[in-house]
Design a protein that fits this description.
By secondary structure, the chain is an all-beta fold. It has no helices and 26 strands.
């Protein structure tokens, strides 16, 4: 800032005047922008700022398409859409004389994981004897820190695991259809749930405690192509015996009544679809025995 004086004289009279000249400089260079360089897509109210720049009266912030915010000060709050491409933030110091050198910050956009593939594991089991089963993800999901596993309905049992596998502890004798679900997670949130894995469970009671009977059940051939031989050795059983065949959903597919004596009986089960079944023997008050059979025609 300088004061300039002017003096004019004609030898008789002198006139003087003065003017103050103030010289403004361009703003200085913008310093580094502080704020997160890695940010989750969809984040809101993210703060970016710089230190004040000499001679700057205000600041011009420029955001990449898909980023939203407005400010003329040394800081700005930015919202990120889910589809921001090559995000960056730039700030330029400004005054009436012009602009200083801008500063930019490139930002890496992070995303929540993709949904996992459907888990795999046992899809049919007897919760009377099979109270523990394991389910796994065969392919890890990129950018996933951990996994959340769920069992539905909750009264079917409990599920434990946060990695690529989880163990289900089934409630003994629980029967019905259950679903195994899993999703990934990272610092940006949770993925969508994988397609749930369906598990069919049934109740296959074991040999009953019946001191009045000692029962031996022999079944052959097993697997069966349609003919099944059932040999029963029974002691001290005077009542008739029921023979039932159940599918894995607990539906009765076959029943017959025989005498409680030692004999071999041939059954035609060719009408049954290929699959796994449970054959049970019972008297009027007890389940005497059960056996798993396979039909493979």
């Amino acid at each position: 800032t300088t004061m300039y004086y002017a003096e004019v004289s004609d030898g008789t009279e002198t006139l003087t005047d003065s003017v103050l000249v103030e010289v403004f400089q361009l703003p200085g260079n913008a310093g580094d922008i502080s704020g997160p360089a890695d940010i989750c897509a969809g984040s809101e109210m993210v703060l970016y700022e710089i230190d004040p720049v000499a001679n700057a009266t205000h600041y011009l912030w420029v955001l990449t398409e898909g980023m939203y915010g407005s400010s003329d000060s040394t800081s700005i709050l930015v919202n990120f859409s889910l589809f921001t491409s090559d995000p960056a933030v730039t700030v330029t110091p400004v005054n009436d004389c012009g602009m200083g050198v801008p500063s930019s910050l490139d930002i890496e956009l992070l995303f929540k994981p993709d949904a996992p593939q459907m888990p795999v594991g046992p899809d049919t089991l007897c919760t009377t004897t099979d109270t523990l089963s394991t389910y796994v993800l065969t392919t890890p999901v990129p950018e996933t820190d951990a996994y959340e596993w769920v069992l539905f309905p909750e009264d079917a049992g409990t599920i434990q695991g946060n990695g690529l596998s989880a163990d289900v502890h089934w409630i003994s004798n629980w029967a019905g259809e259950a679903l195994i679900g899993v999703r990934g997670m990272n610092e940006c949130g949770y993925s969508d749930w994988a397609v749930p894995f369906a598990v069919h469970t049934f109740n296959c009671l074991g040999l009953a405690d019946n001191e009045s009977a000692a029962t031996i059940l022999k079944i052959y051939p097993n697997p069966s192509k349609g003919i099944l031989n059932v040999e029963i050795i029974a002691l001290n059983i005077r009542d008739e015996i029921s023979i039932n065949i159940w599918d894995v959903y607990g539906r009765k597919m076959f029943d017959a009544i025989i005498s409680g004596t030692r004999e071999t009986i041939r059954f035609d089960i060719s009408f049954l679809p290929d699959g796994i079944y449970i054959i049970t023997l019972s008297d009027q008050s007890h389940l005497l025995a059960n056996e798993k059979i396979v039909v493979n025609k």
